[in-house]
């Protein structure tokens, strides 16, 4: 018996009972993880796929973190489970003014492990077996598996591009929901509506009129809105970010999710938050206290100090929330010019880290790229780019439901916050190691 046990392969486990939980069925595979892994396997690749900046965070945020680590030794210990009190207090004060609400730091704020953790907590707290969750396509790719893991049923509605004049650049603002189609998705079983503005991957900033339509339908059908607003400070071209919770009648049924990672360019800190009415938040606290329970104290302390600094500078040229979108817009424009010079047709985003670009011309020139049977063209194209050109992007079809992927398999997504200068330095962005020029140039070498 002992000899047989020693020969069993390390890590193997054979059970007569079902091993994995049923809620994991169908969500074990992540296309995004696959493409990140493919990129890591190739030497000397230009990674314009993943959504994180490669420039330094603002000095005040770095100094705040250093102070949190080297200052008060009690910051090495637990803080309150639902958030470090100085952080929940400044979040309540800062966003209360923006949303037009008196926000209670104890009842209306929950600090989470990044916005990703906030989303997971919200789905687990509110979505029950058989509940329908409306998701706008293209969507951040965790919304569908999180719905399924909670036992819900995703219901999809697509943003569709409006025709443009020949030679006129496409814009994310041209991608619209059909009001009749949207209304048809609401049923007596609809529990939640997922909003992402500015949208990842498209970069669309939803207008007040669009948000009012969503708000009206949510109120009419008694539906909760989960609003993912992590890119709210990255809005360009005079567009304005509007939180749906600020509209009449929506605070009572909205969870507003934010991210210090996107706000202060510190994605590795993994500090996020949820704001909402206590009638919803009490259920999120139940999930939080029985799962994560507590987030890293020092990261929360650094974010609190960063927000306190921003509150003093808010709306002024010295504000990071003023400097960051100006800087990232220059990055975006640099990327657009590079893509257009190589014959791509980018969809100009009004917000976020990302833009998508039409690859129909490449699809026409190279229709027979290798890949699995039925694999969408954009996935085959990105794999070809990674392997043959050393350039990483993300196929846009992964942000659509399976039945709709074939209609949107001629787009790929680039991240344009890959630069070497930092916001506030007042210079036009240069690509890190000429990433943009080298990367975009690589794709067209030998591309038919």
UniProtKB/TrEMBL annotation:
<dbReference type="InterPro" id="IPR015421">
    <property type="entry name" value="PyrdxlP-dep_Trfase_major"/>
</dbReference>
<keyword id="KW-0808">Transferase</keyword>
<dbReference type="InterPro" id="IPR015424">
    <property type="entry name" value="PyrdxlP-dep_Trfase"/>
</dbReference>
<keyword id="KW-0032">Aminotransferase</keyword>
<feature type="domain" description="Aminotransferase class I/classII large">
    <location>
        <begin position="44"/>
        <end position="416"/>
    </location>
</feature>
<dbReference type="GO" id="GO:0030170">
    <property type="term" value="F:pyridoxal phosphate binding"/>
</dbReference>
<comment type="pathway">
    <text>Amino-acid degradation; L-kynurenine degradation; kynurenate from L-kynurenine: step 1/2.</text>
</comment>
<dbReference type="GO" id="GO:0047316">
    <property type="term" value="F:glutamine-phenylpyruvate transaminase activity"/>
</dbReference>
<comment type="similarity">
    <text>Belongs to the class-I pyridoxal-phosphate-dependent aminotransferase family.</text>
</comment>
<dbReference type="InterPro" id="IPR051326">
    <property type="entry name" value="Kynurenine-oxoglutarate_AT"/>
</dbReference>
<protein>
    <submittedName>
        <fullName>Kynurenine aminotransferase 1</fullName>
    </submittedName>
</protein>
<dbReference type="GO" id="GO:0016212">
    <property type="term" value="F:kynurenine-oxoglutarate transaminase activity"/>
</dbReference>
<keyword id="KW-0663">Pyridoxal phosphate</keyword>
<dbReference type="Pfam" id="PF00155">
    <property type="entry name" value="Aminotran_1_2"/>
</dbReference>
<dbReference type="InterPro" id="IPR004839">
    <property type="entry name" value="Aminotransferase_I/II_large"/>
</dbReference>
<dbReference type="GO" id="GO:0005829">
    <property type="term" value="C:cytosol"/>
</dbReference>
<dbReference type="GO" id="GO:0047804">
    <property type="term" value="F:cysteine-S-conjugate beta-lyase activity"/>
</dbReference>
<dbReference type="InterPro" id="IPR015422">
    <property type="entry name" value="PyrdxlP-dep_Trfase_small"/>
</dbReference>
């Amino acid at each position: 018996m002992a000899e047989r046990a020693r020969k069993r392969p390390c890590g193997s486990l054979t059970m007569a009972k079902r091993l994995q939980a049923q809620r994991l069925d169908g969500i074990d595979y992540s296309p995004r993880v696959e493409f990140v892994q493919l990129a890591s396997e190739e030497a000397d690749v230009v990674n314009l796929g993943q959504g994180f900046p490669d420039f330094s965070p603002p000095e005040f945020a770095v100094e705040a973190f250093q102070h949190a680590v080297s200052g008060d030794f009690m910051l090495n210990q637990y803080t309150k489970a639902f958030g470090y009190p100085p952080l929940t207090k400044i979040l309540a004060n800062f966003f209360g003014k923006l949303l037009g609400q008196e926000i209670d730091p104890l009842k209306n704020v929950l600090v989470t492990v990044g916005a990703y953790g906030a989303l997971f907590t919200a789905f687990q707290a509110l979505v029950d077996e058989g509940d329908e969750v409306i998701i706008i396509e293209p969507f951040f790719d965790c919304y569908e598996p999180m719905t399924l893991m909670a036992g819900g049923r995703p219901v999809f509605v697509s943003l569709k591009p409006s025709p443009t004049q020949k030679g006129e650049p496409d814009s994310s603002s041209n991608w619209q929901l059909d009001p009749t189609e949207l209304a048809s998705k609401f049923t007596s079983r609809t529990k939640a509506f997922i909003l992402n503005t500015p949208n990842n991957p498209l970069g669309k900033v939803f207008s007040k009129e669009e948000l009012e339509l969503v708000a009206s339908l949510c109120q009419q059908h008694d539906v909760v809105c989960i609003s993912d607003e992590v890119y709210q400070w990255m809005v360009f071209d005079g567009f304005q970010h509007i939180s749906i919770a600020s509209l009449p009648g929506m605070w009572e049924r909205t969870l507003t999710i934010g991210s210090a990672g996107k706000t202060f360019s510190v994605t590795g800190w993994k500090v996020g938050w949820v704001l909402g009415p206590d009638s919803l938040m009490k259920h999120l606290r139940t999930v939080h206290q029985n799962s994560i329970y507590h987030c890293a104290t020092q990261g929360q302390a650094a974010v609190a100090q960063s927000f306190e600094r921003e509150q003093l500078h808010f709306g002024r040229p010295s504000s990071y929330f003023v400097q960051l979108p100006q800087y990232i817009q220059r990055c975006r424009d640099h990327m657009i010019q590079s893509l257009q010079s190589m014959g791509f047709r980018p969809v100009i985003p009004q917000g976020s880290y990302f833009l998508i670009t039409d690859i129909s011309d490449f699809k026409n020139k190279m229709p027979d790229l290798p890949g699995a049977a039925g694999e969408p063209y954009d996935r085959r194209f990105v794999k070809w780019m990674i392997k043959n050109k050393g350039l990483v992007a993300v196929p846009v079809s992964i942000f659509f439901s399976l039945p709709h992927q074939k209609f949107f398999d001629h787009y790929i997504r680039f991240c344009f916050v890959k630069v070497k200068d930092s916001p506030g330095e007042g210079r036009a962005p240069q690509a890190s190691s000429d990433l943009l020029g080298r990367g975009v140039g690589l794709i067209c070498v030998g591309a038919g």
